[in-house]
Design goal:
Layout (H helix, E strand, L loop, with lengths): L1 E3 L8 E3 L2 H9 L2 E3 L2 E3 L8 H9 L8 E4 L5 E4 L13 E2 L1 H4 L19 H11 L2 E2 L3 E2 L8 E4 L5 E7 L5 E7 L5 E7 L8 E4 L5 E7 L5 E7 L2 E4 L2 E4 L2 E4 L2 E2 L2 H9 L5 H17 L1 E3 L3 E2 L6 E5 L2 E4 L1 E5 L2 E10 L2 E10 L3 E10 L2 E4 L2 E4 L2 E4 L2 E4 L2 E4 L8 E4 L2 E2 L2 H17 L20 H5 L4 H6 L16 E4 L17 E4 L6 E2 L3 H10 L8 H9 L8 E4 L6 E4 L8 E3 L1 H8 L1
């Protein structure tokens, strides 16, 4: 079924596939004798992703006062972009068993649109300044759990001594990495699994002591290499005697100038190497990119151990999940939802954990059969945070949904006007970047923030830093370094300096945000195009746009070339 996107800024044609229709019939919300299914979407998949992810801030942190008068680092700025300032609690205060979100409850008003009523509840309900769980000394992190001594990382679990970056999973002593899994002593790495002591390595697995390389599997002591499998002592994809290899890498270790030259060589290597169309491993009937051990996942990205899903971005062990993002630990039957842990049958929700049968809820943990609620724990049969009996709930809900249908609200995710964040603060900017003008024209907010002048003994341009790590004094911890690219000042922290010295790495010349953005630029868009394999000319689906000049090949040709 072909439809036209209802977004006035889009209007592109999109298809509703038979499996989507089947899925929505499976997603059933039962209220007494009446059962209701989510309707077919009215926005195209890209607009649905954009609207959903504009509600998630992972990396814009601000110092602010919270409800108890203390100061903390929060993802919520003190100055709201709409309405009153958000009520922010520390994670400890928010999780206090005495706190009860029912104090904000109110009766549903059939004379007003639902989203207006929810906006009022949203502003009245406290929220955690940072989404943190069971950490030790990780205050400057967001979306982090079960970690220790980490700094400025987000969306990460089970880590220790990791700094700067995104999606560290079970990692140790690593800095400036994104999508790093089960690894240790890694620096400036992107999409690397089960590796040790690697620097500037990307899209690789089971590697050790590798530098400035990409697409390696089971390699050790390789530098400036690509598409190698189980190789050792290779430089520029050519084998070398051990002593000669070690001598060559010694020539640039610890020097900023020489390591920047190696980065440039790696950039040139990426242009000339062959690229596989997509990264799909041990999976059946899947399309998208970076999918492992999954079945029947269509147009999904960063998904593993999953099945029967479509349009998922970042999912772990998901089943029957459509149009969702950041879904973890066995969510089943979810639609148009962002941020879950172990849920069942939820739709149009934000950050709901260990819950089931929820509609239009946010920040609800261990709840079931709730609608339009915010900040509840262990509650059932609640509407707009007001307690109802089972009979009252089942009688009210069909009437509320009918009311939403008449206002053309039911079936649409929370609008961007309810997001507490500027578009440029959110995951949407990472996936689907817009300029400030474009964002505002489409109805999104934009946050303009000026860096505060750091309280330091010295400010130094990055270009004036000593070249070798051995020449960097301890006093650098008291300096503000001015980024070469953005001119934004940044600080070096003690834990970071110790890492650079131990690993013989130069002090970075770029602001942490600039380093973060440059790593993410290695990743192709989460979108599929049709083009021909550069070797066999077979039509392939790939995340490399047709106008790009890289040599992109189908999986069969890639395996023949590499293995």
């Amino acid at each position: 079924m072909l439809k036209t996107c209802a977004n006035p800024h889009c209007h592109q044609s999109f298809e509703i596939t038979p499996d989507e229709e089947t899925f929505l019939k499976k997603m059933t919300f039962t209220f007494g004798k009446e059962s209701i299914n989510p309707p077919l979407p009215v926005f195209c998949p890209e607009c649905r992703l954009r609207i959903r992810t504009c509600h998630r801030n992972e990396r814009a942190f601000y110092k602010r006062k919270v409800a108890n008068g203390k100061e903390m680092v929060s993802i919520y700025h003190e100055e709201p972009l709409w309405g009153e300032s958000d009520i922010v609690f520390t994670p400890e205060d928010w999780n206090d068993h005495k706190r009860d979100g029912m104090g904000q409850g109110r009766a549903y008003d059939f004379s007003r649109p639902f989203f207006d009523q929810f906006a009022n509840l949203h502003k009245a309900s406290p929220r955690m300044g940072m989404m943190l769980l069971a950490n030790d000394n990780c205050d400057f992190t967001a979306g982090t759990a079960y970690s220790k001594n980490c700094y400025l990382i987000n969306s990460s679990e089970y880590d220790e001594d990791c700094l700067y970056g995104k999606l560290y999973q079970s990692c140790r002593s690593s800095v400036d990495c994104s999508l790093l899994y089960g690894s240790e002593l890694c620096y400036d790495c992107f999409s690397v699994y089960d590796s040790y002591n690697c620097t500037s390595v990307s899209f690789s697995k089971n590697c050790r002591d590798c530098l400035f390389s990409t697409d390696l599997i089971g390699c050790s002591d390789c530098c400036l290499c690509s598409n190698l499998h189980k190789k050792q002592y290779h430089f520029g994809n050519k084998p070398l005697p051990k002593e000669e290899y070690l001598q060559k890498i010694e020539e640039f270790r610890g020097s900023h100038t020489k390591m920047e030259e190696m980065k440039q060589k790696l950039a040139e290597l990426r242009k000339s190497m062959i690229h596989r169309a997509v990264h799909i491993v041990n999976s059946e009937d899947c399309t998208g990119d970076f999918i492992e051990n999954s079945q029947r996942c269509t147009e999904c990205y960063d998904v593993n151990e999953s099945q029967d899903s479509r349009y998922v971005t970042v999912g772990v062990n998901v089943k029957d999940v459509y149009d969702c993002s950041n879904m973890y630990l066995k969510p089943e039957l979810a639609f148009e939802t962002l941020g879950t842990i172990e849920t069942y049958n939820v739709a149009y929700c934000l950050y709901v954990f260990h819950s089931q049968n929820l509609l239009y809820c946010e920040y609800c943990f261990s709840c079931s059969d709730c609608f339009g609620c915010s900040g509840l724990r262990q509650k059932k049969y609640c509407i707009l945070n007001k307690q109802h009996t089972k009979k009252e709930y089942e009688e009210l809900m069909p009437k509320i949904i009918e009311h939403m249908q008449s206002a053309k609200e039911f079936g649409r995710f929370f609008p961007s006007t309810l997001s507490p964040f500027g578009y440029n603060e959110t995951l949407a900017q990472e996936y689907l970047p817009l300029t400030e003008t474009e964002a505002k024209e489409r109805g999104f907010y934009w946050r303009t923030v000026t860096d505060k002048k750091p309280n330091v003994t010295k400010t130094i341009d990055a270009s004036d830093l000593p070249d070798a790590i051995e020449q960097i004094p301890d006093d650098v911890l008291n300096w503000a370094v001015v980024c070469e690219a953005t001119k934004r000042p940044f600080r070096i922290v003690k834990q970071e300096l110790e890492f650079y010295r131990r690993q013989r790495l130069p002090i970075p010349h770029l602001h942490p945000d600039e380093r973060y953005d440059r790593r993410l630029a290695l990743r192709n868009p989460r979108k599929l195009w049709h083009r021909s394999c550069a070797i066999c000319q077979k039509e392939i689906s790939t995340t490399c746009a047709p106008e790009r000049t890289e040599k992109v090949v189908c999986e069969e040709c890639y395996l023949k070339e590499v293995y």
